[in-house]
Design a protein that fits this description.
alpha+beta; three-stranded antiparallel beta sheet; six-stranded antiparallel beta sheet
Length: about 325
């Protein structure tokens, strides 16, 4: 079993940036841009890389059979003069204490599940998944943490306390609700995911506004060695769902920075070349139409998975037993 480093063994940056990948209502909002209108002529995007953009040659691994299309998105009306990174933010993100709290909860949950699987000899059942943990590729786990339902983690789940809710309300409306939450864990050596969209279009005849968004919050600083999430910009448009190398963008944000994107946007987690685990808290929000919210019954149906039941408690270490004896004396 792979053991992840504890909080005290991690290194992080105090300089936290906000880079939210938001794609909604037919608009891409990945970086702030300054434009000038060039009427009467076809406008094209100037050549050059966006900050932290992965070029086609740097894109990791194969697409495992996913079709690659040379189709390009419609040309924008405005010509991009230059691209400017978003300014640092201190209020749309998790603070260091919250990051450490979530990190410890995610690692502890993984270790308790794996100890229970080993104690009950459930290794074969692990490939099918449990209600609290399922595989999303080699070395990748999607985990549901009961702790996230407690008041202790209301900074994630309470609409009045979560720092990113002003952005969510701008995209989905004031009645947007949280429909799912959990943590993705990428172990050292985990492989690149197959390119995918979390959800399909609700209408296949015309482009509808965004009905749901994901919020990914890495609990460690992202870099190209620990397997950040790679996005295919514009793939949330109807008819442009396939992977296009020229539209790849990988935001390497610092720990606690929310990455917000349309539920239909194509993406994949890259391979984790580092020696450390890469946990990411995720939250899925849905708009409410006619009093009914969108629910993903495919990705988040507990009926599909076996219930693991009560965790088997790990035995105390020699040091812990000695400490307990001294306390009892």
């Amino acid at each position: 079993m792979t053991t992840c480093p504890k909080d005290s063994e991690r290194s992080g940056s105090n300089n936290r940036d906000l880079k939210a990948v938001m794609q909604s209502n037919g608009m891409d909002k990945c970086v702030r841009i300054k434009v000038s209108v060039n009427e009467g002529a076809d406008s094209t995007v100037k050549e050059g890389k966006m900050p932290n953009t992965v070029s086609p040659n740097d894109s990791d691994a194969s697409l495992n059979g996913v079709p690659v299309t040379p189709t390009k998105l419609p040309k924008p009306r405005n010509r991009l003069n230059y691209i400017e990174p978003l300014p640092p933010s201190t209020h749309y993100r998790l603070n260091p204490e919250q990051i450490d709290k979530c990190y410890a909860a995610c690692i502890e949950h993984y270790e308790r599940v794996m100890f229970t699987v080993k104690a009950r000899s459930l290794h074969h059942e692990l490939s099918d998944g449990f209600d609290v943990l399922r595989e999303r590729g080699k070395g990748r786990y999607d985990m549901e943490l009961p702790e996230f339902d407690t008041d202790e983690y209301s900074f994630l789940t309470d609409a009045k306390m979560a720092a990113w809710m002003p952005i969510i309300h701008k995209i989905l409306g004031e009645d947007a609700i949280l429909v799912h939450k959990g943590c993705f864990l990428s172990l050292p050596g985990s492989e690149t995911q197959v390119y995918h969209q979390d959800g399909v279009h609700l209408n296949n005849k015309f482009q509808k506004p965004c009905h749901a968004v994901n919020v990914f919050i890495p609990l460690v600083d992202y870099d190209m060695t620990n397997g950040p999430t790679e996005f295919c910009l514009g793939s949330h448009y109807l008819g442009h769902e396939n992977f296009v190398k020229d539209m790849v963008y990988t935001p390497c944000v610092t720990a606690g920075t929310p990455v917000i994107f349309d539920y239909r946007l194509g993406h994949r987690g890259l391979r984790n070349y580092s020696q450390n685990c890469r946990p990411v808290v995720y939250l899925t929000y849905s708009s409410v139409a006619s009093g009914k919210e969108f629910r993903d019954s495919v990705n988040f149906s507990r009926k599909r998975y076996r219930k693991l039941g009560e965790f088997v408690e790990k035995p105390l270490s020699r040091e812990e037993r000695a400490k307990r004896r001294r306390f009892e004396e």
